[in-house]
Design goal:
Elements (H helix, E strand, L loop, with lengths): L1 H17 L6 H15 L10 E5 L12 E7 L2 E8 L10 H10 L5 E5 L3 E5 L14 E4 L21 H27 L2 H10 L8 H28 L28 E3 L2 E6 L1 H13 L5 E5 L4 E5 L6 E6 L6 E4 L5 H9 L10 E2 L10 H12 L11
Parallel strand pairs: 3-4
Antiparallel strand pairs: 1-2, 2-3, 4-5, 5-6, 7-8, 9-10, 10-11, 11-12, 12-13
Helix pairs in contact: 1-2, 5-6
């Protein structure tokens, strides 16, 4: 990582030094964009990694329009890049990138750049439709290289589409939360005042008149709390790890309580063992659908998630008793769902079962889980068909 940061630092200085001389798109590509791709491990002179003027049969895209760069991993395009001149306003050009993005089922990451600013997009809101707002914006004029380690997520040897989607979702939430927190701190609106008063256990009726009375006190308290935190951070002693460490007397440590789930053996049948992975799977699905009435049932053959605790209304059956765990969904895996699973990096067997090597991989099939929940919630799907 240190080597990556050093290269990034040198590139930032290069951009600041020569950027103003890049008046055309082509100069910007050669002087600013391709060098960064090289730092990320996408050799611009290797067409198996970087393909310029990428053309494909995009529905709704003019035949003369081409993507400036398509980045490849393992022989497949994984990211589109739209390049603009150094002084271009990137906001005005995002729709052009979205046309390529929305028309290509195999690419879920897009970027637009003028060499000094990079905006990265994906499809968190609607599948195959590029989000209007980027999940990450990197501006070399405002950031230090040490703050830009997030770019390491886009390195060729670290590039994983599903991992980037998780990173994008996490980054989007953090940015939204930061905006709300900054606004609350700067403006100290009445909702924030009420929250602080409730947490402080103020023994008064928290009506609007009282909240307006204490609003300036809360604002002052926020300012002092931030100041105290900064001062405490600055006054904390610096630990110099290079100095030799003096041996310390041995002391007896209290046992650490491990709250991680452990395998559970059924009290009436020792052959039924609910594993940690099965417990994690139930926890994840419960968090994804907190409003749904879901229960778990374990048997000797498989582990099921049931809707309304009804045996015939299972969302999926998970089998961990094989060399590679598999999952069978309640809905059929048709061609469209196969494509969805393939794009998420999951393998589908000929019988429709899906390899699920880790419980957290279920996040990749959230859309199909929603279909399963809808199927189980529909009583019409479970009516008995009487013979005529």
């Amino acid at each position: 990582m240190n080597n990556f940061i050093n290269k990034l630092q040198s590139h930032i200085e290069h951009v600041k030094r020569v950027g103003e001389h890049c008046s055309t798109e082509e100069t910007t590509k050669q002087a600013l964009i391709l060098p960064l791709l090289d730092i990320l491990g996408f050799n611009p002179y290797d067409p198996t990694k970087v393909l310029a003027e990428f053309a494909a049969d995009f529905p709704g895209v003019k035949a003369t329009e081409r993507v400036d760069y398509a980045l490849y991993c393992n022989g497949q395009p994984v990211m589109f890049i739209e390049a603009k001149p150094y002084n271009a306003n990137l906001t005005n050009h995002a729709p052009q990138l979205s046309r390529y993005f929305n028309s290509s089922l195999g690419v879920t990451i897009g970027a637009i750049t003028n060499g000094k600013e990079w905006r990265f997009f994906t499809d968190l809101i609607n599948t195959n439709v590029m989000d209007e707002k980027p999940f990450l914006t990197v501006d070399f004029m405002k950031h230090k290289a040490e703050e830009l380690v997030q770019l390491a997520e886009f390195k060729h040897d670290n590039f994983h589409v599903e991992k980037l989607r998780f990173f994008a979702e996490e980054n989007q939430y953090i940015q939204q939360f930061k905006t709300v927190i900054k606004k609350s701190i700067n403006e100290v609106d009445l909702d924030f005042v009420r929250y602080v008063a409730q947490q402080a256990n103020i023994q008064r009726q928290l009506n609007t008149k009282f909240l307006e009375t204490i609003q300036p006190f809360v604002k002052q308290a926020v300012e002092q709390a931030i100041s105290d935190t900064v001062v405490k951070g600055l006054s904390s002693p610096t630990i110099i790890t290079a100095q030799p460490i003096e041996p310390q007397p041995t002391k007896i440590e209290q046992p650490i309580i491990d709250h991680q789930p452990v395998d559970i053996i059924h009290p009436d049948n020792e052959k039924i063992v609910t594993t940690k992975d099965e417990q994690d799977l139930y926890r994840i699905v419960s968090e994804l659908f907190p409003e749904a009435e879901l229960t778990a049932k374990d048997t000797e053959s498989y582990y099921s998630i049931l809707f309304q605790n009804k045996n015939n209304r299972w969302l999926f059956r998970y089998d961990v008793n094989r060399k590679r765990p598999t999952i069978q969904f309640a809905v059929p895996i048709d061609d469209q769902r196969k494509l969805e699973l393939f794009r998420a990096g999951l393998e589908v067997q000929t019988n429709g079962q899906v390899f699920l090597d880790k419980p957290e991989h279920i996040y990749r099939a959230v859309g199909i889980l929603k279909d399963c929940l809808a199927h189980c919630s529909n009583d019409d799907n479970f009516k008995r068909v009487l013979n005529a």
